[in-house]
Amino acid sequence: MKTKAKIYGDITKKISEKNKELNLKVKNFVPYNFSMGTELKKHEEYLKIQMDEMKKKEEEEKRKRREEEEEEQKKRKEEEEEEQKKRKEEEEKIEKKKKEEEEEKRKKEEQELLEEKDIKNNETFEEKKIRLVKELMKEVNNLPLTQNKLNKLKNMGDIKKDELVTFVKTLMLNEQEAFENMKTFFEIWDIMKTGYMHKNLIISILKQFGDNLTEEESNYIQKELNQMSESNISYVKLLKKWIYGTEE
């Protein structure tokens, strides 16, 4: 495709050649009223044809550019619509999964409630008694029910709620007395008197203190000790945290 500069250059060249022919004829004394007039007319027609062609080419180029721009806009619009569609599908997928998880959680909770209700309806008298004591102990301070106390509870037979309360009170320790007793017990093992002890040794000492720890209690304490970053732990702070709820 010729550029505008090339087209104008070609026209100028042709006009220049025509002018040379006209000048040559003038020099050769060609009569103006015939030869000169005819050549000028042809020259004007030629220029008009060339200008019309150039105008058509410019319009054709504009039309092509316009079509290309429209095609590009159409393509961008289609890409944006496709992107929006994908984004919407992804959002719907996430929302659907969220609803499914919520529904699954709700059904699971309902099933657990039904199972718990079924257990309560079918539990033995002894199981019911133990469950009530555990619930009451949890309310008063989440006290531990040791094996010795559990055996004692099983041997008590049919008891009323106020008797359960009295039984639970026997589980409550004097905090200061419990702290001093356990602190003294740890100090016996602390030969260097540093106030610190390796966390693996702490669980071994606790198993020997008072009633034997149940497997569940041992696992709970071991898990709590494992979460501590230090290997050597201040047993005084640890006992204060367990008994008083604070390390201070």
Automatic annotation (TrEMBL):
Region: Disordered, residue numbers: 52-112
The name this protein goes by in its record: Uncharacterized protein
Basic and acidic residues compositional bias, start-end: 52-62, 72-112
InterPro entries listed in its UniProt record: EF-hand-dom_pair
Top-level taxon of origin: Eukaryota
Lineage per the UniProt record: Eukaryota, Sar, Alveolata, Apicomplexa, Aconoidasida
